[in-house]
Design goal:
Elements lengths: L3 H14 L58 E4 L8 E4 L2 E3 L11 E4 L13 E5 L7 E5 L2 E3 L5 E8 L6 E10 L2 E11 L5 E6 L7 E10 L9 E9 L5
Antiparallel strand pairs: 1-13, 2-3, 2-6, 4-5, 5-13, 6-12, 7-12, 8-11, 8-13, 9-10, 9-12
Length: about 240
């Protein structure tokens, strides 16, 4: 009995020291660390503006600068330079390729982009070079064309700058009866460019193949550079 008394006193002391406090303490919430395992996205890039190439269209030359009448848009019924290689080209006795070769002394035809005295740049031009023979001829057969009343053949004719030309320019045509003559224009290197505004009423209603021809008056190599400047058929009342 004497041994139990100290043990009881010791237990009471231990219980008193370990008594809970009257203030309740909330349990601590653990901090949860999360790891982002998704693939990082690249930064958004703002697209750079794309440079847009703007085609520069050369202005249409004013026909008045070479002496031709003014023409409203859409009144060109046939363009002889544009249709150059749709035509058949010949010299006396042989056909020619189109465009031709400037090294051929048998004659050639080609687009011309060099200078003509007193003619500003920008006009469609065609060079017809006859063979180097006295009174040699280069001529053509263009695709069929039906002429209407009021149609006019318009062009300016001259020679390449610095060429000592002596040539005749011809406007002819082919029909069922063969080749027919329409008109001729002489050009010598001392002349100003010759302006042509020729009525085609005599052919109204007919379907023909026009012929632009050049005859060289001499056989000198510098005298055959005949240039047709803006040759076309003007139609005052297009559809």
């Amino acid at each position: 009995m004497k041994k139990l008394v100290p043990l009881l006193l010791l237990g009471s002391l231990l219980i008193g020291c370990g008594a809970p406090s009257s203030v309740a303490t909330a349990p601590a919430v653990p901090t949860i660390l999360t790891t982002d395992t998704s693939t990082p996205k690249p930064p958004t890039q703002t697209p750079l503006p794309t440079a847009t190439a703007t085609a520069t269209i050369p202005p249409t030359p004013d026909p008045g600068t070479i002496g031709l009448p003014g023409e409203p848009a859409g009144t060109v019924a046939f363009d002889f330079v544009e249709q150059m290689c749709a035509a058949e080209w010949y010299t006396e006795g042989q056909s020619l390729p189109c465009p031709g070769d400037t090294n051929q002394d048998t004659g050639y035809v080609m687009r011309f982009e060099d200078e003509v005295e007193n003619v500003p740049p920008g006009f469609p031009m065609m060079l017809t070079y006859p063979p180097l023979v006295h009174y040699s001829k280069i001529f053509s057969k263009y695709p069929e064309f039906t002429v209407r009343e009021g149609d006019r053949f318009r062009a300016v004719v001259a020679c390449r700058k610095y060429a000592l030309c002596d040539v005749d320019f011809y406007l002819n045509f082919f029909n069922e009866g063969g080749e027919r003559y329409l008109n001729r224009w002489r050009y010598l290197f001392t002349y100003e460019p010759v302006v042509i505004d020729y009525p085609l009423d005599s052919l109204a209603g007919e379907t023909v193949r026009f012929d632009l021809a050049v005859v060289s008056k001499v056989n000198h190599p510098d005298r055959g550079y005949a240039v047709w400047i803006a040759p076309h058929i003007y139609r005052p009342n297009p559809e």
